[in-house]
Amino acid sequence: MKSNYDVVIVGGGMVGAALACALGNSPLKVALLDRAPAPPSTDKEYDLRVSAITLASRALFENLGVWQGMERRRVAPVREMQVWSGEGSGSIHFNAAEIGEAALSWVIENNVIQTVLIERLHQFTNVHYLCPVEITDITLADNGAVVTLKDGRSLNAKLLVGADGADSGVRHAAGIETQSLNLNQKGIVATVTTEKPHEATARQRFLATGPLAFLPLGEARSCSIVWSADTARADQLLALDDPAFMAELQQSFGDSLGKIQTISPRAAFPLALSHAKAYTAPHLALVGDAAHTVHPLAGQGVNLGFLDAATLAEVLLDAAAKQKDIGAHEVLRRYERWRKGDNLAMISITGGFKYLFGNDLPVVSQLRNLGLDLTNAATPIKNLIMRRASGLEGDLPKLARRVWH
Ligand SMILES: Cc1cc2nc3c(=O)[nH]c(=O)nc-3n(C[C@H](O)[C@H](O)[C@H](O)COP(=O)(O)OP(=O)(O)OC[C@H]3O[C@@H](n4cnc5c(N)ncnc54)[C@H](O)[C@@H]3O)c2cc1C
Prior knowledge:
Blueprint: E1 2-10, H1 14-22, E2 30-33, E3 50-53, H2 55-64, H3 67-73, E4 76-78, E5 80-85, E6 91-95, E7 105-109, H4 110-121, E8 127-130, E9 135-141, E10 144-149, E11 154-162, H5 169-173, E12 178-194, E13 201-207, E14 210-216, E15 222-230, H6 231-238, H7 242-253, E16 260-263, E17 267-276, E18 280-281, E19 284-286, E20 292-293, H8 301-321, H9 329-357, H10 362-377, H11 379-389
Bound molecules: flavin-adenine dinucleotide.
Residues 10-16, 33-36, 51-52, 135, 163-165, 169, 187, 189, 226, 269, 288-289, 296, 299-303, 305 line the site of flavin-adenine dinucleotide.
């Protein structure tokens, strides 16, 4: 059975689902495919995967009509952020009030984001959500792309979008190479409860083996941890039983939240920096982790992906309004030019941080402590970093511009 679509998006994760919503209620006929079943509706237990959402991503959610649905479930504001080095001698403190904002970011569980986006796209008659499906073939031709499914269906698309994550099958099918740096680190995630309340403050300590972050959750004494560590150290930590792991965690993090009282099961993800050499080809575009991955220390990964989705939607809707071919490479190149520089800058910044903080050389250690203290003392630089990290700077697509005050 053959179906014709304007846009076929492979990957219904957070970024693919956001793109599908951004194309909702438009003249374009869209299919969103995922090999996994629809996400389970959120439950009482915190999802181990959470994301710190910038102001630009919140603006996108408001504009897509999904922010209230997320707030009704679980959203935790981050009003302050403390960053300090392992030696404890250099530190920096960010406060949203210093840039006139109510929050620097919001911590939301990944499955809350994905569930609410998927609920929203069911309201659009021009978007079809197909899952779980297995793709058996992707063919790129001069006039479009054909995606063949194991159940015999084939989908013709004027534009095929790869939103299928870091190991993107769409990117492989298009023969697009990536520049990658294996960081030889894993990110361990878990939910903990602590003796003292987090007071809407995100805390990150830079250890020589990698950064350890405590992100505030909805309950006053619950935090999501992301502990990035060199692979050997991470494997050693993962092999510990809960009491031994909590003791290591306490020792590495310190006592700013008092005693760590409980811990959920843990999960771990390999960390890598990667950047696709091209984001587009005729009739093809890549968004989110399919195009780039960054270190989680700056909490920017999915936020860059949301900006990709908002930008690509704007470019496609502009082209459609002007009766242009949405798969034409010159149309898609506008998206690529718009996003590539921004994404590359963030990859370099997080890579540089990793070098600066993951280094035992005494001179580097002195420099980083000095750097943190000097930056903390220099209000304009600090405010610039806050504005940049919150997504308030840069050439934002319309959907990511704020609509609240
Ligand atoms: C430990 C850790 C902490 C992080 N913390 C943050 C943070 O605080 N803030 C932040 O901004 N980012 C963070 N990130 C990064 C963020 O999680 C990713 O950038 C984000 O998940 C990427 O979303 P995506 O939709 O592009 O890809 P993915 O989440 O990988 O989704 C890809 C989707 O494609 C589907 N798929 C794959 N292959 C196929 C196929 N062949 N056919 C059909 N479907 C397919 C998958 O099932 C999946 O649903 C973190 C990452 C890690 C590892």
